[in-house]
Specification:
The structure is a homodimer. By secondary structure, chain A is α/β, with parallel strands linked by helices. Chain A folds into 3 domains: about 50 residues, Orthogonal Bundle (434 Repressor (Amino-terminal Domain)); about 130 residues, 3-Layer(aba) Sandwich (Rossmann fold), CATH 3.40.50; about 130 residues, 3-Layer(aba) Sandwich (Rossmann fold), CATH 3.40.50. Chain A is built from 12 helices and 12 strands. The structure holds a DNA duplex (16 and 16 nucleotides).
Chain lengths: ~350, ~350
DNA sequence: CTGAAAGCGCTTACAG
DNA sequence: CTGAAAGCGCTTACAG
């Protein structure tokens, strides 16, 4: 009863039960082409009766690639990535693929290690929010061997892979302009991870808006791990204190918001703020946050579809040039200085 | 260059390169017992030089179980589960296991389907936040065939599996008592998913506290999908309006908070609130939320360790009776009526 | 300490 | 439409 024998029933058992060859069973499992109606019925009945389930390891060993895709994200603690991951898993499952999950923690060596695990497991394709230049070479090698790769949210040059991005520049441009429209002249741009092109594009958007308006730019761009809140607070006491701040991602927004709260700085009166990246609780904050919403779910969905498409067409060996860029949306709340939308009078 | 041939180099290639048998290479890969020092060195050098990587599918086909564990959670959108999932993935990776991810969306048929996929993929063991009674039988069948299973956060009776829970009753008891200490007499208990024992225990904790204090209980317990906020608001206009509310999980807390905000009901003056489940932004809310903190990360860590332990000892075939119950913590903020902690004067 | 043989459960050509 | 043979890349006994 407790022998460690899983999947006890094999294709041979089914074949025997029907008095046919294993090939016939295999054909039925894989789309029943060239099998007579009646035969197919008999085999299917036996499969159901014996509760047979094909062993994926065996199929993989022959077919060289498993119906599993790998997903590498920096972290699942960040709601943006977890939402994305959720969408990936959903779409993959719908299409009959399983998802192997990896959270690399933006750790260089971990990402490389994970990539090599992927290869060992005959993963069909890779979805990655790339965090490290170090694993680039390995990624490229995987590509060369024909494994399809799709980069999500940010990309590295030199990798021949599909890309699903967001309109970072446009979103940041609009956000900054909105602040300018509110009359702000000294707008500070704050954030982490400037080495990623997603963040880089947001910075460009900010820059473009400031330049267009003839305003001078101010930045606080630090490395991950450096507490950024105190720096923003300190800038408020400088000779030219900013009257508004544009934060480059949600981690930054939360860090800045925490510091402002701690220092009892009033938003938006003393400092207005717009963040890139919206999140569920943004509207329930002490001062509801105006934010650039990124379609995290759509990002995951599109990327997964792109990957599976290239798996189906089997053109992973060719160049993967697809690129999708999704629009962002500026969600106006109060932290930018906008008034709360007056509620419709409710009938008592 | 672009043939779909991954993992081109096999164990045979390595063996040939060293002029040894494949067995010797296999031994080196798997812990180098009974291999001479020099031989091991030679083989390892060849492995590195050829960039050889053992094919997991082949190993699995022989060994019957892959170094992969399956994780089934209801959703990754809920930060509690995504944090938990993150911890699982981390610990598993440290121990050399990969994580196959499934988000079942509390969908009965999906959970069952996923479970059967697990079997097909020779998964070594299962970590599950169970959502459905429907898949119980299947889980139990998996158990019978020797697959170790650990349930996280909530459990179903009749499944012989490891359990990692949280002190739900105690946490809820303490939270309710705290509200009573603030002078509240009419405390409403609100939530979803009463069918889960985790939620059931929280209800018991509330009940115990109310009974001990000689107070009468009030409940709003609804099915998933039903908007719960409006019901809480409505109760405020009843003959015996509650002066405080205890919410049974974070989804409920957020729903109630949203409704209270919409109706401009002041917290804690008009209605005090304590929620079960803490979250990152709780302290940045309009009124910082007092909450029972669950150690999501610890939950994931312990569960993964428990699973891997039973994989190592190979006692999956025997009964899995381990049970870990982690403590919760009441995080006092302002929504319960407590005063904000006075800040330490900062040197200007 | 080392290796030749057999086989894990499936699928890919190849015949009929 | 159907099946016997061979082999995917590894590991498990079994010999030396």
């Amino acid at each position: 009863m407790s022998t460690r024998s899983r999947s006890v029933v094999t294709i041979a058992d089914v074949a025997r039960a029907c008095g046919v060859g294993t090939m016939t069973v295999s054909r039925v499992i894989n789309g029943k082409k060239h099998v007579s109606e009646e035969m197919a019925r008999r085999v299917e009945e036996a499969i159901a009766r014996l509760n047979y389930q094909p062993n994926e390891a065996a199929r993989t060993l022959k077919g060289r690639t498993s119906r599993t895709i790998g997903l590498i994200v920096p972290s699942l603690s960040d709601p943006f990535f977890s939402q994305c991951a959720h969408a990936v898993q959903q779409v993959a499952a719908e299409q009959g693929y399983m998802t192997m999950l990896f959270a690399c923690e933006a750790n260089r060596s971990v990402e490389a290690e994970e990539l090599s695990q992927m290869r060992a497991r005959n993963i069909a394709g890779i979805l990655i929010v790339p965090s490290s230049e170090n694993s680039l070479e390995q990624l490229q090698e995987l590509r060369r061997s024909g494994m399809p790769v799709v980069m999500i949210d940010r990309t590295f040059a030199g990798i021949d892979a599909g890309e699903v991005m967001v309109e970072n520049l446009e979103g940041a441009f609009r956000a900054t302009n909105h602040l300018i429209d509110h009359g702000h002249r000294r707008i500070l741009c704050v954030g982490y991870d400037r080495e990623y092109n997603s963040i880089g594009e947001r910075i460009e958007g900010y820059k473009k808006a400031m330049q267009t308006a003839g305003l001078s730019q101010q930045y606080i761009l630090v490395k991950r791990g450096v507490p950024i809140g105190p720096k923003v607070v300190a800038s408020l006491r400088s000779a030219k204190p900013p009257s508004a701040v544009f934060t480059l991602n949600n981690v930054t927004s939360v860090a800045v918001l925490s510091a402002l709260k701690r220092e009892e700085i009033r938003i938006p009166q003393q400092l207005a703020i717009i963040g890139f990246d919206d999140f569920e609780l943004a509207s329930l904050l002490a001062v509801p946050l105006t934010a650039v919403r990124q379609p995290a779910t759509e990002l995951g969905r599109h990327a997964t579809r792109m990957l599976i498409d290239s798996l189906r067409t089997g053109n992973g060996g060719e160049r993967m040039t697809s690129r999708i860029v999704l629009p962002t949306e500026l969600i106006l709340r109060q932290s930018c200085g906008c008034e709360p939308i007056s509620r419709i009078a409710r009938p008592s």
